[in-house]
Amino acid sequence: MNNNAAGISIIAFIIAVAASMTYYQFVYTKEANAKPQLPEEVLNPLENVKVSIMEGSSQPSQQKNFEPKEARATLGINNKVIWTNVDTTAHSVTSDTQYTDQINGPFNSIDSIGLILPQKTFEFTFTKDGEYAYHCEPHPWMTGKVVIVKSFV
Questions:
Q1: Which residues, 6+ apart, have CB-to-CB distance to 22 below 8 Å?
Q2: How many structural domains compose the chain?
């Protein structure tokens, strides 16, 4: 009689583990990794904010590197930021905090396009309000910030 109870217990345990693993793999993991549903105007705003990487920025003595140094934008209105490199040297736009956007991934030009070559652009759409400090990886004295605020419309 004890052998039957032990066998039934083992089978019940195996079924419970299999059910748990199935739930984790097909339900929990799928929901945990799902991208959030956001309004179309947040994903594809009609307007954008422009930031210039100024000429001479690769020189430590240059005071104006990113212009404007602090870019402000509103979710759903102009939360896409476009950096244009008007310098003759390649630069990056790299998050100080390794920020990863819930939709668009890492806030780092090196991860998506590499260094921003002269006369080229890098764009990033922020989908969450907050303050996002950044710098240029090859030239760490170059710093800037993007501030995204919620829309009250």
A1: none
A2: 2
pLDDT tens for 15-41 read 888 888 877 777 766 666 667 789 899
13, 50, 100, 134 from 120: Cα distances, Å: 60, 13, 23, 18
How many CA atoms within 13 Å lie on the side-chain side of 113?
Answer: 16
Q: What is the pLDDT, as a whole number, of residue 8?
A: 84
Q: How far is CA 75 from CA 23, 67, 140, in A?
A: 36, 21, 28
Query: Three-class SS of residue 135?
Result: strand
Query: Residue 9: which domain range?
Result: 1-34
Tens of pLDDT, residue by residue over 66-120, are: 999 999 999 999 999 999 999 999 999 999 999 999 999 999 999 999 999 999 9
CATH code for the domain of 140: 2.60.40.420
Q: What contacts 122, CB < 8 A, 6 or more positions away? A: 82, 83, 85, 93, 109, 112, 113, 116
CA 71 to chain centre: 17
| The predicted structure's pLDDT at residue 153 | 64
84, 121 contact by CB (below 8 A): yes
